[in-house]
Amino acid sequence: MQPPNPSGNRPAGRLAERMQAWFHWLLVALLAAAFALALAANSLTLNLPGKPGWPEALLLLLATAGTITALARQLPLQNILLAAFIIGLMGGAIHSLGALTGIPFGPFLFGAEAGPQLFKTLPGALPLIWIVAILNSRGVARLILRPWRKIRTYGFWLIGLTAWLAMLFDLAFDPFAARAKHYWLWLPTKFPVSWQGAPLVNFFGWAAVSLLILAFITPSLINKNPARRVVDYHPLAVWLGAILLFGIAAARHGMWPAVALDGTMAVATAIFAVRGGRW
Q: Would 64 be classed as within a structural domain?
């Protein structure tokens, strides 16, 4: 008499994994199509049907969904959804505080182009932007730090580098959002130095908020299953794709310092991430 087979549920588990993989790659294909459409809309003069800005909104939704499904191939889905909820909640709440008080990003006003607002204070897209920025910055940081993943201080380096990459993401994103798309308007401050109209405190604020968010979400994103630790370039593709989109929009509006910075950041980040991923 043979003992019960503990792997009796493996066929069902494999089917679920295959369906999850198919859904992920479907989202990747849709994301690529939406990216091409948004790229064309920001680099060419296209009269697309519907309300202005819908290609960017579609791209943001697919980027968020694709980011979550990519992580779900390595971590339990409930952990990722919890982390995404915390990111969206904290990022959105602090951005609402910033709109009302100017802290911690500096004084600004949301424009009508930012889309429908939650509680007449926060554009609904901003929590998704925080999710895409934080989770993909963390994925890129994991690639860069892969050669040092076994050192004791790896976790602290990962948090710090993720916050740094999130700040770089905002350096590229803000000229696109404020000057190209008019999602918000920066108000004058007493400090004369700015970056494409944005006060420098905005970028330090992004880094500080990212550190705060990471302190809450890191426990749910720790991979405790060595068998599922794979080299995933999806975060790098999303991060670089966003920088490319922002850079092309900046070029179209004549913001050449932003274009130069975006290109430098993209090349340097890609080199270090690919080098780390191949380690």
A: no
